[in-house]
Amino acid sequence: MADKFDPYREALIMETETVWPEEYDHLEAAEKRRIEDALHAEPAACAQLEYQRLHTGFCRVVHVTPADLERVAAATA
What we know:
The chain is of the alpha+beta class.
């Protein structure tokens, strides 16, 4: 289940993770990294966001969606 953007948890982010659906396996590693950087730079705009509790804070997990890819493509065009 996706979480809502949470400024409190964001202040405690210690790690980030990106979950890619299989349909995007064809993308090059460098392209995925560029997209991941863009998504994590603006987590409030991500369609599916999850916070996982760690001993030292939180891990932000972004599940990549077609809407996210459209948004990132539009921002870099």
